[in-house]
Structure formats: structure tokens, C-alpha cells
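INFO batch 0412 | record 1 of 1 | parsing
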Amino acid sequence: MELHQLRYFTVIATEGSFSRASALLGVSQSALTRQIQLLEEEAGSRLLHRNGHGVTLTMAGAKFLASTEKVLSGAEHALLEVQAMSATPSGKVVLGIPPMLGEHLLVPLVRRFREDYPEAKLQIREGISGYVMDWLMSGQVDVAIVYNAPRRATLNVETLVTDQLLLVGATQGKTRLGDPIRFADAVRMPLILPSGHHGLRYIVDQAARDAKLEPNVVIEVDGFAAINKLVAAGLGMTLLPYPFASAGLARGEVTMSPIIEPSLIGVFSIGMTTHRPVTAAMRALYNALRNEMRQLLTDGGWKSGRDVFPADTDKVAQA
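INFO prediction complete | emitting C-alpha cells
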């Protein structure tokens, strides 16, 4: 029995699919199938039940998975402790990042990290903020950028940037945009927003609960590229920080309005958990993220809503 077999089994069981596990692991489905067959032969029992929709755990598989996760966690912890003793960043380090920030930060970050730390192997997992937080707390990623991170004793976070949400709509829409709009009026618009597992949606829902309002969400989409396309097509409006809708604004597809009474502020933070050893590669990635974000802010690569809309305007858009 090999550690890589246990890791393959765990990912397949978690994803419920050989194809998704293959994509995540970078291993062919045929190779995964063979390794699971060898594992089942050694265990003397079927661990996975294959069906037309994927795979499910057998009773023996469920029990085996619980033990497997403990073994892998112990092996990883031992490796991290050894790596933490090294002053030179090396070994694998896993970054969790939301797509809405990765679009602006990922290329310069990866380029600089590879140049500065050639002995470290960077792995990137991209997902909406709620999933990234889950990965961080479960140890699936080492360092993460999270949106509106919760306060937890086992989480160390540092604010990278704060920004206000703007109401974004198609230029062909009938609603006048450009001037500030009250939150109560904004949430009455037909909205296209991420699902509740996303930090941005949490901001909107929390503000609505405080105001005893119900957001008029007509479509839920967990992808900002898709949201921007739907908004540009006039199928609804959305609430986004300026950088994530600025491309559509430049193309003349959308217009924006700042939201007031209250303003909605989102916070991007960099985080690591306190219950895992911190390796030199993790420290290097943490510092690289912080430095690249500062560079974006300095050279104008990140422009906030406050840079676009004057804060002292008292004109309010009419809903």
C-alpha cells in the first residue's frame, strides 16, 4: 500500500468522480482505475461502487476513508515539520484564490514567485471564497486569499485591500445609472448574484437582513465572467467591486452606480491557519502575495470604486 494510492482514493471519494479526480490530480483515469484496483485487492474488499453518475463509497470504503485521511494528514504534517526547518523555500505550496482576484493578480504573482523561488513548486486552486475558506481550514491549501474572512481563533488574516460594491447594469437598460443609488432601491432591481457560499453574496444578504429587505435575485451564478456577460446582455443587474466590471465599462457594455445608505464594503485578506507548521515556501508565498497586491495598488493595476466616483456627491439615482 502506497501513500499515493491513498491520496488517489481520497480525492476520488471526495469528488465522487474518476474524471474530476483525474483533472485535479493530473493523472489519467486509466491509471487511477488501476491503482484503486490494486488497493481493493490488497484491502480484500470493494471500496468504491461505480454507477452511471460517478462513484460512491461502499460501507468498507467509508470506514477506510476515515482512516486514510488520518494517515495522509499525519504524513503531510510530518513533511511540513521537516520543510519548516529549512530556510530555503522548497517543496510544494498550495495557493487558494478566488477567480475575481486571480484575474488581476495571478500572472504577475506566478511569474515573480517562480523567478525568486525556483526550488518551490506552486500549486493553485481557484474557487469562490466560501470554498477557498473551507480548503484553507481543512488544510487543502496552505495560503489563501479570502473575501470577507470570518473571525476565527485558528485563522491568521491580514487585509490586502478593501473596496465598495457598485450597482452594475447594461447601458441598454432603462434605469438611470451613474449617480449614487440607495441600497434599498438597488436590491429591488432584478439582480444576478453568486450563491450564498460566496463572500460577496454574504455582504448583500447581511445588509438586506439589517434593513429588513429581500434582495430581488433572479439568477444565481458562481462565476464573474458569466455574471458580467449576463448583465451586459441586459438580463439583470449585479453588485461588484469596480475592478471586476471595469472591462465591460471600457467596452461600453455596462454603466455603474455607487451604492449608499449603506455603502457595501468588501475586504480581501490573505490568510493561513494556525494549526499547521509554516514552511519557508508558505512564508515566501505569503510575502509574495502581499507585495504583488501592493504593487497593483501603487501602479494603478487595481482601481477602486472610490477612485471613479466622488465621495461627496449628494445626487441620488431615481429607481
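INFO post-check: Residues 312-319 have pLDDT under 50 and may be disordered.
INFO record closed
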